[in-house]
Structure formats: structure tokens, C-alpha cells
Amino acid sequence: MTVMAERTSSQMSVAEFERIAEFAARESEAVRFEFIDGRIGVKKVTNGNHGAIIMWLIRQCMQARPELDLNPTQGLKVEAYRRGRARPDGVLAPVAHFAGQGDWADTHGVLMAVEITSYDSDTHNRDRVEKPRAYAEAGIPVYLLIDRDNLSILVHSDPDLEDGYRDIHVVRLGGKVTLPDPVSIELDTEDLKQYVD
């Protein structure tokens, strides 16, 4: 579950957010923090099916493109001017791309960000509205959303800094989907149907 704190007139700085997120990470592994559109998001650690989906996707990416890593823990500096901080469910980049970059890496060189919807009240706003806009503003070429609520796979591509992603391709869960360049991976999502609960 994600809880978003509304913006106030004295908005928190990115440095203040990073200190809070670092402290929380030391104290508990039960939540992850994000800072998008000037709001703090508290993201609960995922359930088994959520984790099974990301592990399935890691295997698919490794088989198709062994020169790439799908990192399920890397935080990113997102939004225009890198004023936001996101923790995608997966970040596709060249092997060892994030070495030495710390908790919040720049998005230069990232090929794809991945999110898997959670069964909470904020998933629509977070995964379908805020994250696509933030990832497009950061110039990430592909955003893959595995939408368990709507039993679909959404492939966002052709990012625009002002308008978000200009191309969104939707496939029913269980179908085949091609992730466009620079990812260039075809996925048969039939196996994912067992993890939608």
C-alpha cells in the first residue's frame, strides 16, 4: 500500500527526503519510500505473487538480453530536473550500470522501468498516472506496466518531456508483447496469469 503526503507551502527538499528514506531503510524492511511530484510515497513491501512476477521478468530479460540486468532494488532520480525519487519494481540497464551510483541513480543509460500494480487504493494514481509521467520526463525510453487489476500489459514508449509517453500499447495478460527498441525483447505473458491474485 502506498500513502502519499500532500504538498504543503513549505515543500520538502530532495535532500531532506533522502535522509528520511535512508533512516527508514535502516530501521525497517517493510516499506520503501518514494518522492514523486513533491509528495512522499510509502510503498509496502510486495506479496509473493508480486515477487514471482518480477522474478519471471528477470529470467525473461536475462535469457533474451544477457548483457542487461533487470534490477529490482535500484532507486532512480526522476521527473524533470531529477527532483523526484522513484523505486521501480525493476530497472533495465546494462550489466553493472548502477555500480557506485548509490541508492538514487541518474536515469541516463536506463532502457526500461517496470511497475507491477499492487492491490491498494493508490495504485491507479501512482502506477498509471504519476510514474509514467515521471519516467517520461526523465527520458526513460520504455515503461512497462503489468496491470494485475485490469489483466493487461501496458508498454509505454516514445517519451516526451512535457506530454509523457506518446505511444501506449496494451495487450491482454496471457498474450505476446514486444518491448520496443532499445529493449527489443518479446514476452509471452501466458505464465503471468497464475500470479494475478
Structure description:
The protein has 197 residues and is of the alpha+beta class. Helices cover 23% and strands 36% of the residues. It has three helices and 14 strands. It has helices at residues 14-27, 48-64, 123-137, and strands at 2-4, 31-36, 39-44, 68-71, 75-78, 84-86, 90-94, 104-105, 112-116, 142-147, 152-160, 164-172, 176-179, 185-188. A six-stranded mixed sheet has the order 4-7-9-10-11-12. It has a three-stranded antiparallel sheet with strand order 1-3-2, sandwiched between helices. A hairpin with a 4-residue loop joins strand 10 (142-147) and strand 11. The protein starts with a strand and ends in a 9-residue tail after the last strand.
Question: What's the arrangement of secondary structure elements?
Answer:
Layout: E1 2-4, H1 14-27, E2 31-36, E3 39-44, H2 48-64, E4 68-71, E5 75-78, E6 84-86, E7 90-94, E8 104-105, E9 112-116, H3 123-137, E10 142-147, E11 152-160, E12 164-172, E13 176-179, E14 185-188
Parallel strand pairs: 5-8, 9-10
Antiparallel strand pairs: 1-3, 2-3, 4-7, 5-6, 7-9, 10-11, 11-12, 13-14
